[in-house]
Amino acid sequence: MNSIQTFFIRVVNRIETEASSLQRYVFLFFAILVLRLTLEFFSNNRLFTLADVLHISLWFMCIVLAFLIQLHLFSGEDIRRVFKLVITCFSIALTAPLIDIFVARGMGVKMNYLALNSWREVAFSYFTIGGASLSRGATWGIRIEIVILVVASFNYVYTKTKRLARALLAAFSIYTVLFFSGALPFLLEIFVNALHLHYAVDDNSTTLALLTFNLGFILILCFCLFPKRVLHFCQLVEWWRLLAPLIIFCSGALLARQLYESNWQLNPSNLWHFPLLLLLGLGWCAYFYKVKARAIATPTAFQASYPVENAWLIWIVVCSLAISYRTFFVAILIWGLLFLNYEAPLRLYRFKFLNTCLNALALMAFALCGFVSFNAPLVGFPAPLLLNGLLLAVVCIGLIEYKPHALWIKGLLVLGLMLLLFVFSFLMRLNWVYQLGLLASTLPFATAYLFSICTKPRLYMLTLPMILFTFYCICIYF
Prior knowledge:
The protein is mainly alpha-helical. The chain has helices spanning 2-16, 22-44, 50-75, 79-89, 95-104, 119-127, 140-161, 164-182, 184-194, 205-225, 227-236, 243-259, 273-296, 300-303, 311-323, 325-342, 352-372, 383-401, 407-427, 432-440, 443-452, 463-477, and strands at residues 110-111, 136-137.
Protein backbone atom coordinates (compact mmCIF):
# COMPACT_ATOMS: atom_id res chain seq x y z
CA MET A 1 0.00 0.00 0.00
CA ASN A 2 2.85 2.39 0.77
CA SER A 3 4.32 1.87 -2.67
CA ILE A 4 0.92 2.56 -4.30
CA GLN A 5 0.47 5.72 -2.24
CA THR A 6 4.01 6.86 -3.08
CA PHE A 7 3.32 6.29 -6.77
CA PHE A 8 0.02 8.19 -6.48
CA ILE A 9 1.71 11.20 -4.85
CA ARG A 10 4.53 11.21 -7.40
CA VAL A 11 2.12 11.14 -10.35
CA VAL A 12 -0.05 13.89 -8.84
CA ASN A 13 2.94 16.14 -8.18
CA ARG A 14 4.27 15.65 -11.68
CA ILE A 15 0.91 16.57 -13.23
CA GLU A 16 0.41 19.60 -10.98
CA THR A 17 3.90 21.01 -11.64
CA GLU A 18 3.72 20.66 -15.43
CA ALA A 19 4.90 23.94 -17.00
CA SER A 20 2.26 24.11 -19.74
CA SER A 21 -0.21 27.01 -19.68
CA LEU A 22 -3.85 26.59 -18.68
CA GLN A 23 -4.87 27.34 -22.25
CA ARG A 24 -3.11 24.16 -23.39
CA TYR A 25 -5.17 22.20 -20.86
CA VAL A 26 -8.38 23.64 -22.29
CA PHE A 27 -7.35 22.22 -25.67
CA LEU A 28 -6.46 18.95 -23.94
CA PHE A 29 -9.98 18.76 -22.50
CA PHE A 30 -11.58 19.07 -25.94
CA ALA A 31 -9.15 16.55 -27.43
CA ILE A 32 -10.09 13.97 -24.78
CA LEU A 33 -13.77 14.88 -25.12
CA VAL A 34 -13.84 14.17 -28.87
CA LEU A 35 -12.16 10.81 -28.31
CA ARG A 36 -14.62 9.96 -25.54
CA LEU A 37 -17.59 10.86 -27.74
CA THR A 38 -16.28 8.69 -30.55
CA LEU A 39 -15.82 5.68 -28.26
CA GLU A 40 -19.25 6.25 -26.67
CA PHE A 41 -21.02 6.33 -30.04
CA PHE A 42 -19.37 3.05 -31.02
CA SER A 43 -20.13 1.57 -27.59
CA ASN A 44 -23.79 2.60 -27.86
CA ASN A 45 -23.98 1.61 -31.55
CA ARG A 46 -25.75 4.93 -31.98
CA LEU A 47 -26.51 7.20 -34.92
CA PHE A 48 -25.71 10.61 -33.46
CA THR A 49 -26.73 14.13 -34.44
CA LEU A 50 -25.20 17.54 -33.80
CA ALA A 51 -27.68 18.00 -30.93
CA ASP A 52 -26.36 14.80 -29.32
CA VAL A 53 -22.76 16.01 -29.59
CA LEU A 54 -23.67 19.39 -28.09
CA HIS A 55 -25.73 17.90 -25.26
CA ILE A 56 -23.18 15.28 -24.20
CA SER A 57 -20.31 17.79 -24.47
CA LEU A 58 -22.14 20.24 -22.19
CA TRP A 59 -22.81 17.39 -19.72
CA PHE A 60 -19.13 16.42 -19.54
CA MET A 61 -18.09 20.06 -19.25
CA CYS A 62 -20.51 20.52 -16.36
CA ILE A 63 -19.14 17.43 -14.61
CA VAL A 64 -15.51 18.49 -15.04
CA LEU A 65 -16.14 22.04 -13.81
CA ALA A 66 -18.13 20.86 -10.78
CA PHE A 67 -15.45 18.26 -10.03
CA LEU A 68 -12.69 20.88 -10.34
CA ILE A 69 -14.37 23.42 -8.06
CA GLN A 70 -15.20 20.84 -5.40
CA LEU A 71 -11.69 19.37 -5.38
CA HIS A 72 -10.21 22.87 -5.03
CA LEU A 73 -12.52 23.80 -2.14
CA PHE A 74 -12.01 20.57 -0.20
CA SER A 75 -8.27 20.21 -0.74
CA GLY A 76 -7.33 23.86 -0.37
CA GLU A 77 -4.79 23.40 -3.18
CA ASP A 78 -4.04 26.17 -5.67
CA ILE A 79 -6.76 26.25 -8.34
CA ARG A 80 -4.23 26.17 -11.19
CA ARG A 81 -2.63 22.97 -9.93
CA VAL A 82 -6.05 21.37 -9.45
CA PHE A 83 -7.06 22.55 -12.94
CA LYS A 84 -4.10 20.72 -14.51
CA LEU A 85 -4.78 17.58 -12.48
CA VAL A 86 -8.52 17.38 -13.21
CA ILE A 87 -8.18 18.00 -16.96
CA THR A 88 -5.40 15.43 -17.25
CA CYS A 89 -7.37 12.87 -15.23
CA PHE A 90 -10.39 13.48 -17.46
CA SER A 91 -8.71 10.83 -19.61
CA ILE A 92 -10.14 8.31 -17.11
CA ALA A 93 -13.46 8.96 -18.88
CA LEU A 94 -12.12 6.94 -21.80
CA THR A 95 -12.25 3.76 -19.73
CA ALA A 96 -16.07 3.56 -19.51
CA PRO A 97 -16.86 2.99 -23.22
CA LEU A 98 -13.82 0.71 -23.61
CA ILE A 99 -15.01 -1.48 -20.73
CA ASP A 100 -18.54 -1.58 -22.14
CA ILE A 101 -17.27 -2.55 -25.60
CA PHE A 102 -15.24 -5.36 -24.04
CA VAL A 103 -18.03 -6.58 -21.72
CA ALA A 104 -20.77 -6.43 -24.40
CA ARG A 105 -18.38 -7.80 -27.07
CA GLY A 106 -19.23 -4.93 -29.37
CA MET A 107 -22.98 -5.54 -29.27
CA GLY A 108 -23.66 -2.10 -27.84
CA VAL A 109 -24.97 -0.81 -24.51
CA LYS A 110 -27.08 2.26 -23.78
CA MET A 111 -25.24 4.98 -21.89
CA ASN A 112 -27.88 7.55 -20.95
CA TYR A 113 -29.60 9.23 -18.01
CA LEU A 114 -30.99 7.13 -15.19
CA ALA A 115 -34.62 6.11 -15.70
CA LEU A 116 -36.14 7.23 -12.39
CA ASN A 117 -39.82 7.63 -11.57
CA SER A 118 -39.90 8.04 -7.78
CA TRP A 119 -37.73 9.07 -4.87
CA ARG A 120 -37.61 5.43 -3.79
CA GLU A 121 -35.92 4.54 -7.07
CA VAL A 122 -33.60 7.52 -6.58
CA ALA A 123 -32.53 6.21 -3.16
CA PHE A 124 -32.02 2.66 -4.49
CA SER A 125 -29.99 3.89 -7.47
CA TYR A 126 -27.92 6.20 -5.25
CA PHE A 127 -26.79 3.44 -2.89
CA THR A 128 -26.23 0.89 -5.68
CA ILE A 129 -24.27 3.31 -7.92
CA GLY A 130 -26.82 3.35 -10.72
CA GLY A 131 -29.61 0.91 -9.95
CA ALA A 132 -30.36 -2.64 -11.03
CA SER A 133 -29.95 -2.30 -14.81
CA LEU A 134 -26.44 -2.85 -16.17
CA SER A 135 -27.33 -2.67 -19.87
CA ARG A 136 -28.59 0.91 -19.95
CA GLY A 137 -28.15 4.12 -17.91
CA ALA A 138 -25.24 3.42 -15.54
CA THR A 139 -23.39 0.64 -17.38
CA TRP A 140 -20.51 -1.46 -16.03
CA GLY A 141 -18.03 1.02 -17.50
CA ILE A 142 -19.68 4.06 -15.93
CA ARG A 143 -19.88 2.42 -12.48
CA ILE A 144 -16.21 1.45 -12.54
CA GLU A 145 -15.31 4.96 -13.71
CA ILE A 146 -17.32 6.52 -10.84
CA VAL A 147 -15.64 4.27 -8.26
CA ILE A 148 -12.18 5.19 -9.58
CA LEU A 149 -12.96 8.93 -9.47
CA VAL A 150 -14.47 8.89 -5.98
CA VAL A 151 -11.63 6.81 -4.49
CA ALA A 152 -8.99 8.97 -6.18
CA SER A 153 -10.71 12.14 -4.93
CA PHE A 154 -10.81 10.80 -1.39
CA ASN A 155 -7.12 9.92 -1.52
CA TYR A 156 -6.18 13.28 -3.04
CA VAL A 157 -8.00 15.36 -0.42
CA TYR A 158 -6.67 13.18 2.41
CA THR A 159 -3.12 13.48 1.04
CA LYS A 160 -3.39 17.27 0.88
CA THR A 161 -5.17 17.91 4.19
CA LYS A 162 -4.45 14.83 6.36
CA ARG A 163 -8.06 15.07 7.58
CA LEU A 164 -10.16 11.94 7.26
CA ALA A 165 -13.52 13.67 7.83
CA ARG A 166 -12.79 16.25 5.15
CA ALA A 167 -11.73 13.58 2.67
CA LEU A 168 -14.90 11.57 3.35
CA LEU A 169 -17.04 14.69 2.91
CA ALA A 170 -15.28 15.44 -0.39
CA ALA A 171 -15.90 11.91 -1.67
CA PHE A 172 -19.56 12.10 -0.61
CA SER A 173 -20.06 15.51 -2.26
CA ILE A 174 -18.37 14.50 -5.52
CA TYR A 175 -20.31 11.23 -5.76
CA THR A 176 -23.59 13.04 -5.03
CA VAL A 177 -22.97 15.56 -7.80
CA LEU A 178 -22.05 12.78 -10.23
CA PHE A 179 -25.19 10.83 -9.35
CA PHE A 180 -27.64 13.72 -9.64
CA SER A 181 -26.06 14.80 -12.92
CA GLY A 182 -27.13 11.39 -14.21
CA ALA A 183 -30.62 11.97 -12.77
CA LEU A 184 -30.98 15.46 -14.28
CA PRO A 185 -34.17 14.73 -16.30
CA PHE A 186 -35.89 13.46 -13.17
CA LEU A 187 -34.96 16.60 -11.23
CA LEU A 188 -36.06 18.87 -14.08
CA GLU A 189 -39.35 16.98 -14.33
CA ILE A 190 -40.07 17.73 -10.65
CA PHE A 191 -39.26 21.40 -11.24
CA VAL A 192 -41.46 21.60 -14.35
CA ASN A 193 -44.40 19.89 -12.63
CA ALA A 194 -44.12 22.27 -9.68
CA LEU A 195 -44.55 25.21 -12.08
CA HIS A 196 -47.36 23.44 -14.02
CA LEU A 197 -45.59 23.86 -17.35
CA HIS A 198 -45.92 21.81 -20.53
CA TYR A 199 -43.11 20.70 -22.81
CA ALA A 200 -42.92 22.12 -26.31
CA VAL A 201 -42.51 19.91 -29.37
CA ASP A 202 -38.88 20.99 -29.87
CA ASP A 203 -38.01 20.93 -26.16
CA ASN A 204 -34.34 21.49 -25.33
CA SER A 205 -34.68 22.38 -21.65
CA THR A 206 -32.03 19.88 -20.50
CA THR A 207 -29.44 21.31 -22.88
CA LEU A 208 -30.23 24.89 -21.82
CA ALA A 209 -30.06 23.85 -18.16
CA LEU A 210 -26.60 22.31 -18.70
CA LEU A 211 -25.45 25.44 -20.52
CA THR A 212 -26.68 27.65 -17.67
CA PHE A 213 -24.92 25.47 -15.08
CA ASN A 214 -21.72 25.55 -17.13
CA LEU A 215 -21.73 29.34 -17.38
CA GLY A 216 -22.33 29.60 -13.64
CA PHE A 217 -19.42 27.24 -12.93
CA ILE A 218 -17.20 29.24 -15.30
CA LEU A 219 -17.94 32.40 -13.29
CA ILE A 220 -16.98 30.60 -10.07
CA LEU A 221 -13.83 29.30 -11.73
CA CYS A 222 -12.91 32.82 -12.92
CA PHE A 223 -13.28 34.10 -9.36
CA CYS A 224 -11.03 31.30 -8.08
CA LEU A 225 -8.42 32.00 -10.78
CA PHE A 226 -8.49 35.81 -10.71
CA PRO A 227 -10.01 36.96 -7.39
CA LYS A 228 -8.31 40.38 -7.45
CA ARG A 229 -9.43 41.12 -10.99
CA VAL A 230 -13.01 40.13 -10.22
CA LEU A 231 -13.10 42.29 -7.09
CA HIS A 232 -11.54 45.18 -9.00
CA PHE A 233 -14.20 44.79 -11.68
CA CYS A 234 -16.96 44.90 -9.04
CA GLN A 235 -15.47 48.13 -7.69
CA LEU A 236 -15.02 49.60 -11.15
CA VAL A 237 -18.61 49.06 -12.28
CA GLU A 238 -21.04 51.86 -11.45
CA TRP A 239 -23.93 49.51 -10.76
CA TRP A 240 -26.55 52.23 -10.64
CA ARG A 241 -25.93 52.92 -14.33
CA LEU A 242 -27.29 49.46 -15.11
CA LEU A 243 -30.76 50.73 -14.25
CA ALA A 244 -30.99 52.48 -17.61
CA PRO A 245 -30.45 49.49 -19.93
CA LEU A 246 -32.33 47.19 -17.54
CA ILE A 247 -35.51 49.28 -17.48
CA ILE A 248 -35.32 49.91 -21.21
CA PHE A 249 -34.85 46.18 -21.86
CA CYS A 250 -37.86 45.38 -19.66
CA SER A 251 -39.89 48.04 -21.49
CA GLY A 252 -39.10 46.31 -24.78
CA ALA A 253 -40.11 42.96 -23.28
CA LEU A 254 -43.40 44.38 -21.99
CA LEU A 255 -44.09 45.90 -25.38
CA ALA A 256 -43.53 42.52 -27.05
CA ARG A 257 -45.93 40.86 -24.63
CA GLN A 258 -48.53 43.52 -25.37
CA LEU A 259 -48.27 43.50 -29.17
CA TYR A 260 -47.35 39.85 -29.83
CA GLU A 261 -48.70 37.98 -26.83
CA SER A 262 -49.40 34.77 -28.75
CA ASN A 263 -45.81 34.54 -30.03
CA TRP A 264 -44.38 33.51 -26.67
CA GLN A 265 -45.68 31.10 -24.05
CA LEU A 266 -43.73 30.03 -20.98
CA ASN A 267 -42.46 26.45 -21.23
CA PRO A 268 -39.57 24.40 -19.76
CA SER A 269 -37.22 25.50 -22.55
CA ASN A 270 -37.68 29.28 -22.52
CA LEU A 271 -37.81 29.21 -18.73
CA TRP A 272 -34.01 28.98 -18.90
CA HIS A 273 -33.92 32.11 -21.06
CA PHE A 274 -34.28 34.24 -17.93
CA PRO A 275 -30.99 33.20 -16.26
CA LEU A 276 -29.35 33.27 -19.69
CA LEU A 277 -30.53 36.87 -20.15
CA LEU A 278 -28.97 37.77 -16.81
CA LEU A 279 -25.72 36.12 -17.88
CA LEU A 280 -25.94 37.94 -21.21
CA GLY A 281 -26.32 41.24 -19.35
CA LEU A 282 -23.25 40.38 -17.28
CA GLY A 283 -21.34 39.75 -20.49
CA TRP A 284 -22.34 43.12 -21.91
CA CYS A 285 -21.40 44.86 -18.67
CA ALA A 286 -17.99 43.18 -18.50
CA TYR A 287 -17.27 43.79 -22.17
CA PHE A 288 -18.29 47.44 -21.94
CA TYR A 289 -16.08 48.19 -18.95
CA LYS A 290 -13.24 46.20 -20.49
CA VAL A 291 -13.17 48.22 -23.71
CA LYS A 292 -13.88 51.45 -21.86
CA ALA A 293 -11.00 50.79 -19.47
CA ARG A 294 -8.68 50.21 -22.41
CA ALA A 295 -9.95 53.30 -24.23
CA ILE A 296 -9.72 55.87 -21.46
CA ALA A 297 -6.86 54.26 -19.50
CA THR A 298 -8.42 53.32 -16.18
CA PRO A 299 -6.22 51.33 -13.75
CA THR A 300 -3.97 48.81 -15.48
CA ALA A 301 -5.13 45.93 -13.25
CA PHE A 302 -8.32 45.68 -15.27
CA GLN A 303 -6.53 46.10 -18.60
CA ALA A 304 -4.46 42.95 -18.10
CA SER A 305 -4.90 40.50 -20.96
CA TYR A 306 -6.96 37.38 -20.44
CA PRO A 307 -6.06 33.89 -21.76
CA VAL A 308 -8.66 34.50 -24.46
CA GLU A 309 -8.69 38.17 -25.44
CA ASN A 310 -12.27 38.21 -26.63
CA ALA A 311 -13.68 35.91 -23.95
CA TRP A 312 -16.59 38.19 -23.13
CA LEU A 313 -17.53 38.48 -26.81
CA ILE A 314 -17.65 34.67 -26.98
CA TRP A 315 -19.76 34.75 -23.80
CA ILE A 316 -22.23 37.18 -25.43
CA VAL A 317 -22.45 35.06 -28.59
CA VAL A 318 -23.08 31.83 -26.66
CA CYS A 319 -25.75 33.31 -24.35
CA SER A 320 -27.62 35.13 -27.11
CA LEU A 321 -27.54 32.19 -29.53
CA ALA A 322 -28.93 29.91 -26.82
CA ILE A 323 -31.95 32.23 -26.47
CA SER A 324 -32.79 32.84 -30.14
CA TYR A 325 -31.25 33.95 -33.41
CA ARG A 326 -33.10 37.28 -33.08
CA THR A 327 -31.51 37.92 -29.67
CA PHE A 328 -28.14 36.98 -31.16
CA PHE A 329 -28.58 39.51 -33.97
CA VAL A 330 -29.44 42.38 -31.61
CA ALA A 331 -26.66 41.33 -29.20
CA ILE A 332 -24.17 41.65 -32.04
CA LEU A 333 -25.75 45.02 -32.90
CA ILE A 334 -25.03 46.23 -29.34
CA TRP A 335 -21.49 44.87 -29.60
CA GLY A 336 -21.03 46.70 -32.91
CA LEU A 337 -22.11 50.01 -31.39
CA LEU A 338 -19.71 49.56 -28.46
CA PHE A 339 -16.92 48.57 -30.84
CA LEU A 340 -17.42 51.66 -33.00
CA ASN A 341 -17.47 53.88 -29.93
CA TYR A 342 -14.56 52.55 -27.90
CA GLU A 343 -12.39 50.19 -29.95
CA ALA A 344 -9.62 50.91 -32.44
CA PRO A 345 -9.31 52.04 -35.13
CA LEU A 346 -12.17 54.57 -34.97
CA ARG A 347 -12.68 55.21 -31.20
CA LEU A 348 -15.53 57.60 -31.84
CA TYR A 349 -15.93 58.33 -28.11
CA ARG A 350 -13.36 61.10 -28.63
CA PHE A 351 -16.06 63.10 -30.43
CA LYS A 352 -18.65 64.07 -27.84
CA PHE A 353 -21.65 64.27 -30.14
CA LEU A 354 -20.92 60.92 -31.80
CA ASN A 355 -20.27 59.38 -28.38
CA THR A 356 -23.68 60.61 -27.19
CA CYS A 357 -25.46 59.33 -30.31
CA LEU A 358 -23.83 55.88 -30.14
CA ASN A 359 -24.66 55.53 -26.45
CA ALA A 360 -28.27 56.47 -27.20
CA LEU A 361 -28.39 53.95 -30.04
CA ALA A 362 -27.02 51.27 -27.69
CA LEU A 363 -29.76 52.02 -25.17
CA MET A 364 -32.47 51.72 -27.80
CA ALA A 365 -30.84 48.49 -28.97
CA PHE A 366 -31.48 47.15 -25.47
CA ALA A 367 -35.16 47.88 -26.01
CA LEU A 368 -34.98 45.93 -29.27
CA CYS A 369 -33.24 43.08 -27.45
CA GLY A 370 -36.02 42.85 -24.87
CA PHE A 371 -38.54 43.01 -27.70
CA VAL A 372 -37.10 40.18 -29.82
CA SER A 373 -36.16 37.99 -26.84
CA PHE A 374 -39.87 37.30 -26.38
CA ASN A 375 -40.24 36.16 -29.98
CA ALA A 376 -41.49 39.44 -31.40
CA PRO A 377 -40.27 40.37 -34.91
CA LEU A 378 -37.57 43.01 -35.01
CA VAL A 379 -39.43 45.15 -37.58
CA GLY A 380 -42.57 44.93 -35.41
CA PHE A 381 -41.13 47.45 -32.95
CA PRO A 382 -43.14 50.69 -33.40
CA ALA A 383 -40.99 53.12 -35.40
CA PRO A 384 -42.40 56.32 -33.74
CA LEU A 385 -41.61 54.94 -30.32
CA LEU A 386 -38.10 54.00 -31.43
CA LEU A 387 -37.38 57.42 -32.93
CA ASN A 388 -38.86 59.39 -30.04
CA GLY A 389 -37.02 57.24 -27.53
CA LEU A 390 -33.76 57.72 -29.45
CA LEU A 391 -34.20 61.49 -29.53
CA LEU A 392 -34.95 61.65 -25.82
CA ALA A 393 -32.01 59.37 -25.05
CA VAL A 394 -29.67 61.67 -26.99
CA VAL A 395 -30.97 64.73 -25.11
CA CYS A 396 -30.77 63.09 -21.69
CA ILE A 397 -27.35 61.55 -22.23
CA GLY A 398 -26.12 64.88 -23.53
CA LEU A 399 -27.32 66.57 -20.36
CA ILE A 400 -25.72 63.90 -18.17
CA GLU A 401 -22.39 63.90 -20.03
CA TYR A 402 -22.23 67.68 -19.88
CA LYS A 403 -20.57 68.69 -16.61
CA PRO A 404 -22.06 71.76 -14.97
CA HIS A 405 -21.37 72.52 -11.32
CA ALA A 406 -24.96 72.18 -10.13
CA LEU A 407 -26.13 68.59 -10.59
CA TRP A 408 -29.61 69.30 -9.26
CA ILE A 409 -30.27 71.66 -12.19
CA LYS A 410 -29.70 68.78 -14.63
CA GLY A 411 -32.00 66.64 -12.54
CA LEU A 412 -34.77 69.21 -12.83
CA LEU A 413 -34.24 69.39 -16.60
CA VAL A 414 -34.62 65.64 -16.96
CA LEU A 415 -37.70 65.55 -14.73
CA GLY A 416 -39.15 68.39 -16.83
CA LEU A 417 -38.54 66.40 -20.00
CA MET A 418 -40.29 63.42 -18.47
CA LEU A 419 -43.30 65.53 -17.55
CA LEU A 420 -43.37 67.06 -21.04
CA LEU A 421 -43.20 63.62 -22.57
CA PHE A 422 -46.07 62.34 -20.45
CA VAL A 423 -48.27 65.32 -21.41
CA PHE A 424 -47.36 64.86 -25.08
CA SER A 425 -48.22 61.16 -25.07
CA PHE A 426 -51.49 61.88 -23.25
CA LEU A 427 -52.51 64.56 -25.75
CA MET A 428 -51.64 62.24 -28.65
CA ARG A 429 -53.80 59.53 -27.01
CA LEU A 430 -51.11 56.93 -27.34
CA ASN A 431 -51.62 53.44 -25.93
CA TRP A 432 -50.50 53.18 -22.30
CA VAL A 433 -47.75 50.76 -23.37
CA TYR A 434 -46.28 53.46 -25.62
CA GLN A 435 -46.46 55.90 -22.74
CA LEU A 436 -44.69 53.44 -20.47
CA GLY A 437 -41.93 52.85 -23.02
CA LEU A 438 -41.37 56.56 -23.59
CA LEU A 439 -41.44 57.34 -19.89
CA ALA A 440 -39.08 54.51 -19.06
CA SER A 441 -36.54 55.81 -21.59
CA THR A 442 -35.96 58.89 -19.42
CA LEU A 443 -36.70 57.60 -15.92
CA PRO A 444 -33.29 55.89 -15.51
CA PHE A 445 -31.47 59.14 -16.14
CA ALA A 446 -33.40 60.93 -13.44
CA THR A 447 -32.55 58.06 -11.11
CA ALA A 448 -28.91 58.49 -12.06
CA TYR A 449 -28.97 62.05 -10.72
CA LEU A 450 -30.29 60.96 -7.37
CA PHE A 451 -27.37 58.57 -7.04
CA SER A 452 -24.83 61.05 -8.40
CA ILE A 453 -25.55 63.34 -5.43
CA CYS A 454 -24.45 60.58 -3.08
CA THR A 455 -20.97 61.21 -1.67
CA LYS A 456 -20.29 57.55 -0.83
CA PRO A 457 -19.74 55.61 -4.09
CA ARG A 458 -19.78 52.29 -2.27
CA LEU A 459 -23.48 52.77 -1.65
CA TYR A 460 -23.95 52.16 -5.37
CA MET A 461 -23.42 48.48 -4.64
CA LEU A 462 -26.68 48.52 -2.70
CA THR A 463 -28.52 48.98 -5.99
CA LEU A 464 -27.38 45.60 -7.31
CA PRO A 465 -29.88 43.56 -5.22
CA MET A 466 -32.58 46.00 -6.29
CA ILE A 467 -31.71 45.43 -9.97
CA LEU A 468 -31.78 41.66 -9.57
CA PHE A 469 -35.04 41.81 -7.61
CA THR A 470 -36.64 44.00 -10.30
CA PHE A 471 -35.62 41.57 -13.01
CA TYR A 472 -36.94 38.68 -10.92
CA CYS A 473 -40.31 40.42 -10.53
CA ILE A 474 -40.49 40.91 -14.30
CA CYS A 475 -39.74 37.21 -14.81
CA ILE A 476 -42.48 36.24 -12.34
CA TYR A 477 -44.92 38.53 -14.17
CA PHE A 478 -44.36 36.65 -17.41
